[in-house]
């Protein structure tokens, strides 16, 4: 058995629809689950996808519930964190995907000119990828260049593959493809 969580900020679909009654289903379950759609779902927040995002971290779900809604939760109007339990006998129409394992096989070998998951910034650049709102300055710093380089000053390379890998790790993210049945949704915690 594995425990997963999903945050539901005020005004979001899963805040107004109780997954304990309906289960979780992707917004566009009919879409073909390609690696590109997976990366768009994670790195760009594309909700029209065949995936439902889950996390192994209650803290991540709590953060999403508290900060990614239409208003700030209060004791009188809370956000929710769902607890989902999935055992090894998952329904045949449900597949759990580890995004790292899904993206890694499609990455090119290291001899390419610009491997899509590498950046050319300093070590703090990844802080901006992890938290692009509060640490944006690390994304916009100039990429260090070798001495006497005639290169044009620019920000470091940031690809969708790198964003996907970093945000998957940041959010302890697992994707569900298919319907998570209502009987797997154990709790809906009120949070504020």
Provide structural commentary.
It contains 8 helices and 6 strands; from the N terminus they run E-H-H-H-E-H-E-E-H-H-H-H-E-E. The chain has 192 residues and is of the alpha+beta class. The strands form 2 sheets. Strands 1-3-6 form a 3-stranded antiparallel β-sheet. The longest helix is centred in the C-terminal third of the chain and has 11 residues, at 160-170.
**Principal-axes shape call:** globular
Using only C-alpha atoms, the radius of gyration works out to 19 Å
What's the helical proportion of residues?
Answer: 25-40%
Averaged pLDDT:
93
Spatial strand sequence of the major β-sheet: 1-3-6
Largest sheet: 3 strands, antiparallel
Please give the alpha-carbon distance between the first and last residues.
28 Å
Task: Assess the beta-strand content as a share of residues.
Answer: 15-25%
| Element-level helix/strand string | EHHHEHEEHHHHEE
Secondary structure class reads: alpha+beta
**Regions with pLDDT < 50 over 5+ consecutive residues?**
none
Q: Supply the number of helical segments.
A: 8
Q: Could you tell me the number of beta strands? A: 6
Topology readout:
Blueprint: E1 2-8, H1 13-16, H2 19-22, H3 35-43, E2 51-55, H4 58-67, E3 79-86, E4 95-97, H5 99-103, H6 125-130, H7 136-140, H8 160-170, E5 173-177, E6 185-191
Antiparallel strand pairs: 1-3, 2-5, 3-6, 4-5
Helix pairs in contact: 3-8
Keywords:
alpha+beta, three-stranded antiparallel sheet, 8 helices
Short description:
With 192 residues, this protein is of the alpha+beta class. It has helices at 13-16, 19-22, 35-43, 58-67, 99-103, 125-130, 136-140, 160-170; strands at residues 2-8, 51-55, 79-86, 95-97, 173-177, 185-191.
